[in-house]
Write a structure and sequence with these properties.
single chain, 154 residues, 35% helix, elongated
């Protein structure tokens, strides 16, 4: 159960309200219901309406006539820049398919927290890049004692 997500469905009207720290996101299939909810919340909490959602916790949201698109392009570019891979060429597969990884092979990585943060960032990236899920799952198995070979596999 998520205590920050509130959903209401009445007949054909759906409305969802998500609270994240000091931000509120409202989504609905009925604009009148959204306006009524915003007015009610504003009377009680004094809201500042920022309009349509464009960015939220590393997600880039775009609305078109066809629907809503979610991207993590800025997040991915930041991650590539932070790791020094921004100028590298893209590859067809996220990890060498036959790569053998072991708990014991190789020297221990000197900064396990760096490895854990990197795997966490990659895990977050799987929201829009499910093709990374297998790699992140494999590399997550070595979070306790990462080796240099595990870091190089990233």
């Amino acid at each position: 159960m998520d205590h920050s997500l509130f959903i209401r469905k009445t007949g054909s009207v759906f409305i969802a309200l998500l609270v994240y720290i000091d931000d509120i996101i409202i989504a609905s299939n009925n604009d009148l219901v959204v306006q009524k909810l915003k007015k009610t919340l504003d009377a009680r909490f004094k809201l500042k309406d920022l309009g349509f959602l464009h960015f939220f916790i590393g997600l880039e949201i775009a609305r078109t006539a066809k629907g809503i698109s979610v991207s993590q392009r800025p997040y991915a570019l930041q991650l590539l820049g932070d790791t020094g891979y921004l100028g590298n060429k893209p590859v067809a597969t996220p990890m060498e398919p036959n790569l053998k990884l072991s708990q014991e092979d190789g020297e221990l990585f000197d900064d396990p927290s760096l490895y854990r943060r990197l795997i966490g960032k990659l895990l977050y990236l799987t929201i829009t890049r499910p093709n990374l899920s297998y790699v992140v799952n494999r590399l997550s198995q070595f979070l306790a004692k990462p080796r240099i070979t595990h870091y190089k596999a990233v």
